[in-house]
Prior knowledge:
Order of helices and strands: HHHHHHEHHHHHEHH
CATH architecture: Up-down Bundle
Number of helices: 13
Shape: globular
Strand content: under 5%
CATH topology: A middle domain of Talin 1
CATH class: Mainly Alpha
Number of domains: 1
Radius of gyration: 18 Å
Amino acid sequence: xxxxxxxxxxxxxxxxxxxxxxxxxxxxxxxxxxxxxxxxxxxxxxxxxxxxxxxxxxxxxxxxxxxxxxxxxxxxxxxxxxxxxxxxxxxxxxxxxxxxxxxxxxxxxxxxxxxxxxxxxxxxxxxxxxxxxxxxxxxxxxxxxxxxxxxxxxxxxxxxxxxxxxxxxxxxxxxxxxxxxxxxxxxxxxxxxxxxxxxxxxxxxxxxxxxxxxxxxxxxxxxxxxxxxxxxxxxxxxxxxxxxxxxxxxxxxxxxxxxxxxxxxxxxxxxxxxxxxxxxxxxxxxxxxxxxxxxxxxxxxxxxxxxxxxx
Length: 311
């Protein structure tokens, strides 16, 4: 009973923290003329991926490779099928200024293809982890070169009022801490509940832990979408998936080699690939709509049905 209470309270902390983070990120973006997309794809994405990183590194150190890898796969699936669909369905209108297909969708697909290629030999070694880290560096350099093509205009900057670095930085850090702490307690309580039901390690990783670690992305992106910050919401999702596959998996591989049987978990890997391809397709055709969100939820339903049937 206590675990269910902790889970509900942690969700409330997540919502509060994500609201603070989105608000302060917007203020910082307006003050310095930084596009909301680059804020979402870097600060917000990396910040909300910290729970995944902590979970995967801990799993790797504890010699639980299935938990480390399933956390990454599951988080990527949930970020697209649950978080992105929620943005499309909840937001009144999703009309981002940035052309995500021309500029960003490849960065959602590249790490997934590299993940599959690396998994074929059954192991993510330290060299693989290093290469994944370099891929993230390449993504950040790309953002720095293209991310500010959508600038906040001077009038919007003036409307933000008097800017205080101390206040903005302090509230941003507080929001990020609340998001991370809320996610941490949500993960722990969900894991305890799952273990009490006798669920396997892979299922715990790909559903319970992945869902828990995707809650920051869900809360931040939905709140951003409600506030009309579509660029920040979508940027956070693409950036988070990029961070999951590169920084999260890469850091876990660096602290210790991770073994995986790609054939055993081929359905889950294929679902991650299909979800990513759908993201590319939707961005290519600018299908940022409620029907698109429903189509992503259908993929999530198929994934969950398959996962639950294997318990």
